[in-house]
Amino acid sequence: MSCRVGVVRFPGTNCEFDTVDAIHSLGGEAEVLWHGDSSLKNVDAVVIPGGFAHGDYLRCGAIAKFSPIMESINSFAKEGGPVLGICNGFQVLTEAELLPGALQKNAGMKFLCSMQRIDFVSTSNVLGRHAKAGDRLRIPINHFEGNYVCSPEVLNQLEEENRVVFRYVDNPNGSIADIAGICNAEGNVVGMMPHPERATSPLLGSTDGTTLIQSLLIA
């Protein structure tokens, strides 16, 4: 039986159908979950996709964390359910305190849309089943507030617990320690700024996101 993935939709989300298409293309099933509902509809994994949840008013993800669906996702994650936050979804996960740190405006105050090289640092998480540490991927970014920041204490903890999932080869946004993605202590919650759903076909310029979504589908 194929994995059923819930793809959360907030007002302002704009990558949900790209994510659904990528999941379908790799043999999974996808269910769009409205942020105002509390049911996860018995899905096997959850993706919070990119976009501008609630217009990114206040801070990115600051309003989204109060949506009913987030309480259910919090419980799902605490029970070991796989959760992936992509771009705006990463921002939502930090605001909801499912991941530490925060995302702030890019260095240089510019919106960035480009293909980036990122290195797989830790594969001890739900995205690492088809990878090994050191693998280099080409995956696009598309954000204005992708500059990951955290306290020195949190950074030390992330490093010591092998929770930095991806690093940029050429840091485009000023993120501390070149961080492009992190996970929680258990490895079932991952947040990343690059968009793997936009790297699943040669027509999109890269297929390097394929292994990440495939890994989620068997999480």
How many alpha or pi helices? 5
Overall pLDDT, averaged?
96
CATH class bucket: Alpha Beta
Write out the strand line-up for the largest beta sheet, numbering strands in chain order.
Answer: 2-1-3-4-11-10-9-6-7
Approximate helicity band? 10-25%
The CATH superfamily label reads Class I glutamine amidotransferase (GATase) domain
Low-confidence stretches: none
Strand proportion, as a percent range, falls in 25-35%
Largest sheet: 9 strands, mixed
Care to count the β-strands? 11
User: How many separate domains make up the residues?
Assistant: 1
List the secondary-structure elements in sequence, H or E. EHEEHEHEEEEHEEEH
Give me the CATH architecture, please: 3-Layer(aba) Sandwich
How would you summarize this macromolecular structure in one to three sentences?
With 219 residues, the chain is an alpha/beta fold. The protein has helices at 16-25, 68-78, 88-95, 152-160, 210-217, and strands at residues 4-9, 29-34, 45-48, 83-86, 102-104, 112-120, 136-143, 147-149, 164-168, 179-183, 189-192. The chain has a single domain, classed as Rossmann fold (3-Layer(aba) Sandwich), CATH 3.40.50.880.
